[in-house]
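Two proteins were folded this term; both appear here.
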Amino acid sequence: IARKRNYPKGSVLSGTEIWKVTKDALLGLMTCIIIVGGVIFGWFTATESAAVAVVYAFIITFFVYREIPLRQFGNILRKSLRTIAMVMALIATASMFGWLLAYLKIPAMVTTALLGISTNKIVILLLINVMCLILGCIMDMGPLILILTPILLPIVQAIGMNPIQFGVIMVVNLAIGFVTPPIGVNLFVASSLTEVPVMQIAKKAMPMIGFFLVALLLITFIPAISIGIL
């Protein structure tokens, strides 16, 4: 795709240049280690890890790398606020929509209809994936996990699926919804940062979504991918 669209490419780096770039990036990469490692080792929650990482990134950016002058901090905050406001508005409306669906018992109705179609394990898993993909396109991940897990978990356990594998399948399904319209949160974030229309970004993301779906099928029908390390 990059070759077909003639995306710009960088020059090949020598061994010395690779080491220099890696060394310069180590402090920045520590941000990821703080977020993931802090949660894994139980030092703080996911939300707290994000706050700690932001403070760390602020110190490294302005006082170590010094690539951005401190006077730009106000402008950065304004741009961040605009992006956060858009995302929070989407999450708020998606949460309200999720509450409405739960109140009307739509997920339970869909699940009943799903089981009425077939008792075959493969067919049920495919139908669950289709349902999660469709709902992931129109609802936020948080409400969907709260709504669907109590409904679908007994079903997958009845057909012999490990709950951990089911959790991975659901998260991957709903994560795909982050990049699919009409309520793809990541699409709106990318649009606000790049000022490119949402549907234009969604159109260009379609080939990547195809690869996501292939990965989803592998995770669904090859349990070792999810639970092989247990």
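Next, the second protein.
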Amino acid sequence: LMGRRQIACVFEGEERFKSHLEQRRGIILVGAHVGCWELGGHFLGRFDIPVNLVVIERELAGIQRLLDSVTGGKRFRILTADDNPLRSVPILAALRRGEIVALLGDRSFGGADVEVSFLGGKVRLPVGPYRLAAASGAPLFHVFVVREKLGRYRFVAFPPESVSREEIRSDRDAAQTRVQRYAERLETLVRQYPFQWANFFPYWERTSEPPSAAGPMPTPT
């Protein structure tokens, strides 16, 4: 990111969304505040397709300053999201242009969310990415980028999820099932890489037992 030339990355599951991008079809990537999602954006630059990073309005200025200072602002297009339905218009437009839309799905900021189990407690996580997938018809992928050792990273992409409008409208439990799947994958990752999870606020509604020892992160199947 900052001039280091010897950065290697192992890609697992990249072929799952590579074919969509080659056909100029938009995709949704849902990551987390874990590992190095910024580096993931630079890896995606190999496809020569715009990457749109969706952030909440109040964090826009800080994130833009950070990206401009480190990368010159060339890798990401920043879009904002909140409770205003009009915020989704430029996001949907990016997907229709065949671009990449990236979101972080591990924090709820007061919008639509559901309660799921995570690391021994109950947390609320957003359903916005799945509503966006339903509205656009774009496939949704859970992706994570973690550091294995100095200069070596691991990019993991899980199988795509297709969300229909009928499912979101008629099945109240469908969104919770999908978000719970994301939470379980994130939990496995956090257990293996606990010091790479950038969590700095009260995450659980009540005190939970600390997570047990980490096991290996499974290969996405």
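The radius of gyration is 17 Å. The chain has a mean pLDDT of 80. These notes refer to the second protein only.
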